[in-house]
Each structure stands twice: as C-alpha cells, then as structure tokens.
Specification:
With 247 residues, the chain is an all-beta fold. 2% of the residues lie in helices and 41% in strands. The protein is flat and about 55 Å long. It starts with 32 loop residues before the first strand and ends in a 15-residue tail after the last helix.
Length: 247
C-alpha cells in the first residue's frame, strides 16, 4: 500500500497551527488544453515559474508550471511582530502539460498540495529560489524537479531542503526520486537522505559541517507502485517509511 511509503512528520514549526486558520481558498480547475503556458493561468492567478523541456521523450518541449494566487485577502498581518510584517498565504498550484504534435499543450497533472501555503513570518518562503536554502521548479533531463527549502530566521535551528524528482511513468507523473538534506545549525550535525524509487535504494549520510568524515548506510524500500504527486500530500511533511523522522 502506498501508505507505507508516505507518512507525515512535522518538519517546520508554524505560528499558524492549522490550515483552517488560513483564509479559505478555492482552487480552480485548469483547462484540459491550452495554446501556451499563459492559457493555463486562471483569473486571479499569476504564472510564477515556467519551465520547458522534453518530459515524455517524444522530442517536443513540454511545460512545467508553478501558479500563484494573487488575492490581497490572503496577505495577513504578523500579529507576533517578529521577522516579517505580513505573511503572504496565497496558495500555489503545480501543473505539467505535454506538447501536442498538432500544436498547443494538454494538461496531464495539476496539484495544490505539494507546495503548502506559506504561513510563517520567520521562515523563508520554501518555494522561493532566493531563500537561504532555495526552492523552485525545474524541468531537466526528462524530469520535473521541485525543491522546498527550510530556513528559520527565528524559532528553529534546522535548515535544508526537500527535493522531489518526477518522471513520466505509466502514463502519468510519478515520484522517482526524493532527497532530504538537513543541517542542525546549533550542533553542526548534517544528514542527507536519498531515495531512488526506480531501484528502491535508500542512502543515508551523516556527518558534521566542520569535518569531512561521514557515515553512510544503505538499505532498500519495499516494491510498491511509484507514488503519484497527489499521494505525497504536503511536501514539507513528507516522510517516506518514517526515514526522515529517524535521522
């Protein structure tokens, strides 16, 4: 069962305890086809990131998109007073569209759970490529890659990133790789977790930032169908097989 591969572990503290404390939003359905990237952008949303490359091996340039809502009602005052004055909780959506030989693109994936809504005035925006750990979206070498960064200016010592690698498999967008990196800034401890879902290999590397010595262990995960992006859920809480929680 896919539940064995996906379990939740809280990785980032937030001043807003639950999503239901955020202003409610409605995620619009994206069109099934469009002539270009802009054609997939709903009213009230912007095209934050656009990446192009051949994802399914047919020689045509496909699209990977990150969309963000622009609603002033989702920009909240920071009542705690620390760090930022406001918190932009506007949600994001990810989309992948394959190029058609007759022109235009057809939507094959839309998701609004992998990138959770930003809700912490003292944390970097996890999808911001200019953050300390850097986030973002790329389409390279036939894969769609999403990075979520973690860095707290106050309220936490942990920093690092979670990287999701998706490929076109079984007529869908599926997770083929996951990398989790963490630095504990108060102790100097480092941990790296890498999972290759295609060969079911897990590698964990532990060390210290002031030393080149590392300890590496390897194992395997059970044979299961490759997870879809929707089965991952909140990317900041993704903890496959409980491996992140055991680091």
């Amino acid at each position: 069962m896919i539940e064995m591969l996906v379990s939740a572990a809280l990785l980032l503290p937030s001043p807003l305890a639950q999503d239901d404390e955020l202003p409610p939003v409605t995620y619009p359905a994206l069109p099934a086809t469009a002539a270009d990237a802009e054609g997939f952008v709903p009213n009230g949303w912007t095209l934050e990131t656009r990446q192009s490359g051949d994802l399914n091996g047919d020689g045509l340039p496909d699209l990977a998109l990150a969309l963000k809502q622009r609603d002033p009602k989702n920009i909240l005052p920071n009542e705690g007073g620390m760090c930022r004055e406001t918190i932009d909780t506007n949600p994001r959506m990810l989309a992948v569209a394959l190029a058609r030989r007759t022109g235009g693109y057809r939507l094959v994936m839309e998701n609004h759970t992998l990138i959770p809504r930003y809700d912490s005035a003292c944390a970097d925006d996890w999808f911001d490529p200019d953050g300390q750990s850097g986030g973002g979206l790329t389409l390279v070498r036939g894969t769609v890659r999403v990075r979520l960064g973690r860095f707290m200016n106050a309220g936490g010592w942990s920093s690092g990133s979670s990287d999701f690698v998706f490929g076109w498999r079984n007529n869908g967008i599926r997770l083929i790789g996951f990398d989790y990196a963490n630095v504990q800034r108060n102790t100097g401890e480092t941990q790296k977790l890498s999972i290759n879902y295609l060969i079911r290999r897990v590698q964990i590397v532990r060390g210290m930032i002031d030393s080149e010595k590392t300890r590496t262990s390897e194992s395997t995960i059970p044979a299961r169908p490759l997870p879809t992006i929707d089965q991952i859920g909140n990317g900041m809480e993704f903890d496959p097989n409980g491996l992140v929680g055991k680091l």
